[in-house]
Structure formats: C-alpha cells, structure tokens
Amino acid sequence: MAEKDTELIHGALITKDPAKLRLKPNLQGYDNLRKTFKWSDADKMVEWFPGGKINAAHNVIDRHAKGKNANKVALIYDDGEGNAQKVTFKQLYEQTNKFANVMKKLGIKRQDRVFFFLQRSPELYVGFLGAIKCGAIASPMFPAFGPDAIRDRLLDSSAVCLVTDSDLKKRFYEVKAQLPELKHTIIVGKDVAPDELSWEKEMAAASDKFETVPMDPEEFMYLLYTSGSTGKPKGVVHAHKGIVEAHLTANWVLDVHDEDVYWCGADLGWVTGVVYGVLGPWSNGVTQVGLAGRFDPDRWYQTIQNYKVSIWYTAPTAVRMLMAKGDDIPKKYNLSSLRALYCVGEPLNPEGVRWAMEVFDNKPFHDTWWQTETGSILITNFPEMPIKPGSMGKPLPGIEAAIVDETGKVLGQGEEGSLALKPGWPSMMRQIWKNPAKYNEYFRNGWYYTGDTAQIDKDGYFWYVGRADDVIKTSGERVGPFEVESALIEHEAVAEAGVIGKPDQLRGNIIKAFIVLTPGFTESDALKADIQKHVKSKLAGHAYPREIEVVKTLPKTRSGKIMRRLLRARELGLPIGDISTLED
Ligand code: ATP
Ligand code: MG
Questions:
Q1: Residue 10 forms part of a structural domain
Q2: Nearest ligand to the C-alpha of residue 273?
Q3: Number of folded domains that form the chain
Q4: Domain presence at residue 420
Q5: 175, 160, 234: which is closest to 429 by C-alpha?
Q6: For residue 8, what are the contacts with CB-CB under 8 A and spacing of at least 6?
Q7: What spacing in Å lies between the alpha carbon of 346 and ligand 1's midpoint?
Q8: Residues 448, 481: one domain?
Q9: Residue 9 pLDDT more than 70?
Q10: Are the C-beta atoms of 114 and 139 separated by less than 8 Å?
Q11: Residue 148: inside a domain, yes or no?
Q12: Which residues span the domain enclosing 540?
C-alpha cells in the first residue's frame, strides 16, 4: 500500500490543541524522550523491596493503602444491573491480605499456579492480587469458557488451585476428573460441596495482616493464554518486573491522573483486563470502574454518565457494535465527563475514530497496539500527538520497532513487512509455558517477530496491514484484510466485515468478504454491487471483494477479535482447529 493510498483512505489528520486538553498529558516531548529515556528511569516509578526484590501486588495495592490513597476508592464495581459497590485501596489491601493468608494455609507454594474462573466481581480482583502477593502465579479465565477450554488450561499449567463460583463450577465439573494435580477448589457462593472450600468461610477466618512476599523481579506473576485468533492459545508467562511497564504505560499512554475515573471494559481473561483493568491503573493509584455483564449500549453509556468516567479503554469490536446501534442512543446520556478514549485488540477502523469525534464531542479514539506476549502497550497514539485515523501510532520511548523481512533486514518507509521489536523491554513474556520451542520461534535474527505485518510512513507512524497469515495475495498484489474491511464498514449498510483470500485459478486468490448488515438493510444483488462499487472507489482496483456473503454474525474470540481462520476454514472446507476461545 503506497503512502498516497493511506492518506486517501484514512483521511485527515486529527490534531490536538494543548489549550483544549482538560489535563496536561503525563508524557511531554515524545521526540526528546525517545532519545533520552532509559528503562532505569521507569524502575524509579515503582516501589522495590530491599535487595532489588519486588512484588507487583505491593505496587498495585499495598503502597497506596499505606499512603495518601488509603481511603481513596480503588474500585467502583457495578454488577451489571446498576448496583454499585465502592472498595477503597485500604479495603482491597485487607481483602488481598486475607486471600494471601488463605493461600498460605492451603500450603500454596511459591510459583504454584492458581486459577480464577469467575464473573467479574470484587472476589476476582481480590483473589488475583492476593495470589500474586503470596508468590503464586495467578491466572484468570474467561467466565464464558466451556469445559474443554477450562481443562486445557488447568492441565497445561498443572494448576493446584481453582477459584470459581456456585454457578460456573458446573462447567468445571465436566472435566474435574481429568485434573489429578488440582488440589483445591474454592467456591464463591453458597453451593459448596464437601470436598470444596467456601470463599466466604475461609476469608472470614483469615487474618487481614500479611507481609507481601518480596520476589525476584524475574519470578513469575501471571500466566495468561493468548486469544486464539490464529491457532491454539499459547500460555504466556509474565514476570513481576512487568509491573514497571504496566505502570509506565498506564501513566504515559492511558494518561491516568489522580482525579480520573478510569474504565477498562476488558474481561480479566484477556491480557487487556489484567494489565489495564488491574495492574497499570491501580499502580498509578487511580479509581477504576469494573462493570459486570454483557454488551449493552445503554448500560455502557449509563456507566460513563453515572460514574463520571473520564478515561475509557475499549476494543474495536465494541466500537463497531456501538456504531451499528446508531447515534441516537448516546444522545440520551451526559457523556461530558469523558476526556480520553483508547482502543485495543484489532486494527481500529478509521470510521470508528471519526465516529467517536462526532459522538463524544471531538474526542477521538487512541489506538494502542500490543500483544499478550508484549505485556504492555508498545506502539500507540499518545495524548499529545496528532492522530492519523487507521494508524496505530508510534513506539513507546524505550522500544525499538521496525519493519523487517525474513532475514532480519530493516525495510524502508512505505515497505510492507514483519513488525518486529528489539527484545529486552521489562514486560516482555518470559516463557511460553512448557513450550520452549514455541517461545524460541518468536526470536530470529536478533528481533522479536510479532506475527503481524505493517509499514511505517514518512512521519514514523505505524500502519497495521494484517496478521502474517491473513494477508491476501491477489493478482500478484498483497492486500491486507484490514484495509478492505475498513472500506467495507464505511458503507452504511455494513456493520461488520471479515475478509479472506479464496483460491482462484486466474488470480491466485480473490477477495471474499463476509459482512453483517446494519439493522434495517436487506440483502440483494444490487446492494452487494453498490458495496463493491464503494470499496473500489476507496481502494486500488484489485482490492475489492469479488464475492460478498451476508452472514448474521462473524466468528470471534472471547476477546472480540474476528477469527478469519474460521471464515477461511469454513469457506475452503479445511479443519477448523482449536475453537476453545470462540464466542458462542
Ligand atoms: P493468538 O496469538 O492466539 O492467535 P491473538 O494474537 O489475537 O491470538 P492477543 O495477544 O490477544 O492474541 O492479541 C494480539 C494481536 O492482536 C496482535 O498481534 C495484533 O494482531 C492484534 N492487535 C492488537 N491490538 C491491535 C491494534 N491496535 N491494531 C491492530 N492489531 C492489533
Ligand atoms: Mg497472537
């Protein structure tokens, strides 16, 4: 994709007038920081124990509970029905101490794996951080997981303890017999079997005093499986040292300030929920909203209005769903508390950025790029920086990112290739659990290969092209599905789109689009022709979908990403592979 085309497709630059920003961004002078910043500067933003030891949970909770934030609200928990519960840092400190004591009593050893299969609830935050306090490796799972996904994870990691609830445990029971290494099951709720422990009783009996265990910075903090967009989820292991970068990026990118009310919609089963729904924001001492329940536009706008959310971190799939529901719903709410919007998980279609400008009073979404493996945001749109809609922005100071080829050669401006990073940032994964071969595959020619393809423009902005596996070769040209999908959803009849290459004798591949129609539109040949015409007017001639299939929904992961590999498998009659993370 030539430079000219990107400008054409994605439209005008969104500039920011510093005088109009409500708060001065934490990160000032990006260009200078890129030259001067050292990771040792970031180390100073968190607290360490004597002898170079650290514990992420100390930074997230204890240091605030022991300081000026003790009585500050850490969590505003909404059960999804609008019932709110406020928890202070001091209360979280006492609760996590109690849970750490429960772990101790059960004989949970340093670096044992403790899993959480819970709806978003105060217990989930408490358990997750309490386990980390006592030196265990914590791992949350999506509450919507089925039995196979639960078994795979508990088995792969040799988990010794599972915390679940009276309701969700039914799915766990289906595979319980296959998990001989699991010693303890703790149940939140009333329905507790004789061989299970009651959360309520254990917590009531536990002391609220606990000395958080000083850990070596390289010891493991949490284990999380990837989203499964491209294949079987990988068990990514993160060290306590990662808190340094979770803290830094919440400060510099999400720009949390003391007075902010911050809301990250991601479930803790996804890395975004862990790093930016727990670790980074609380390490900065900010008040967070935790909303239970499923996608519900009215509930979401109400959440912003009722709790005066000022910073909102969400995902493109949610933005597209809100867009499809129309602009009348947000008009019913007072959303004036918002000052900054962020997005992650998939490429953010330029249409979404522009829509936000209209609906949220000139506030664009800031796209942020990262992976489970990277442990924190690495390429992003910073608050002080102009936004090019469709671009993922620029690398964090301290991060060297480049577009390289398969030999590790760095490619030039506008050239498409593998997005690669120089290893060594603090929050980088330390292992793929029990799979060193898989881990080693990421590192080649001195680079960490992300598996994504991208290009860099003349101003140093990064543009996502696609997953390496998803890029389509048609009529001798390479086409990224994202640009076609973005053009498709700009058509008023298209709410969502997933694009794949379909083998074709003449062209190598043709582009096939699966689309979900905006409510109110009906399928017809004329409509499809109009959609094709629209894409042709936006993109180069070869990059339009010769085939369009209307579907009710697109297959997505639990973290809300379009699973193009399933669209491909279905279309081409290939094996479907691992679908443990597939949404219902
Ligand atoms: P799996 O590795 O199991 O296939 P996954 O890659 O979707 O799943 P995650 O770690 O949740 O698992 O997602 C990271 C990937 O998500 C990135 O490699 C990239 O492809 C995509 N991604 C995340 N944020 C962005 C973004 N802002 N723009 C484009 N793509 C993004
Ligand atoms: Mg991945």
A1: no
A2: 1
A3: 2
A4: yes
A5: 234
A6: 538
A7: 6
A8: no
A9: no
A10: yes
A11: yes
A12: 471-572
